[in-house]
Amino acid sequence: MRDYAWLSSYCLNxxxxxxxxxxxxxxxxxxxxLRALGDDRYLSLIALRVFRxxxxxxxxxxxxxAFEEVFFAxxxxxxxxxxAEHLERLMQDSRLIRHLGKxxxxxxxxxxxxxxxxxxxxxxxxxxxxxxxxxxxxWKYLAKNGSQLGGLSAPRLLRMMGKDTFIPTDDLVAALxxxxxxxxxxxxxxxxxxxQAAFNQWQAESGRPLCQLSVMLxxxxxx
Length: 223
What we know:
- This protein is an all-alpha fold.
- It folds into 2 domains: about 80 residues, no CATH class; about 100 residues, Hypothetical protein, domain 2 (Endonuclease III, domain 1, Orthogonal Bundle).
- The chain contains 14 helices and no strands.
- The chain is elongated, with a radius of gyration of 19 Å.
């Protein structure tokens, strides 16, 4: 495994300078901003992630105002009361993406958010307080307790929220393999722990957030 000095040098050479590199890097939201985001917005983002999975994002995004309307602006207290008959009626609404399994996930995730809010005060409190040094633990928590948040959905959702995370895209996995950290896409606890440890080391060396390190490392893959 190479150190951050190598990673920084590689990316600076590839993009031509500090300004060019920085322009390509995402910025995570602050803990304060994550706490300030309402539970309704978190439910909307979770639902958006679920419906985007496997579909062209622009298609889903264009339909999202209709989703906001039929799901009561994603107020979790209202959405959690939506029963099977209500969801069946939504299957007749041509403005929506009519996938019953995904529609059913919305009230389930509303209940998830309400459960977290009862324990912590708000869903944003959970997201803000979870340490980036164990971000894979948050992926696991979301996949276990949420609906349809397995696989890459949890890290992609966190990126949408603005929570600092890396995302094991194909390019990132290829880079991790080249660094000798994994030999395939990380799925087991041991593999995920190894990737987390590597990112924690690069973060300690650089002071950069995980999302920036993730993008930088992915750019070390030559196509």
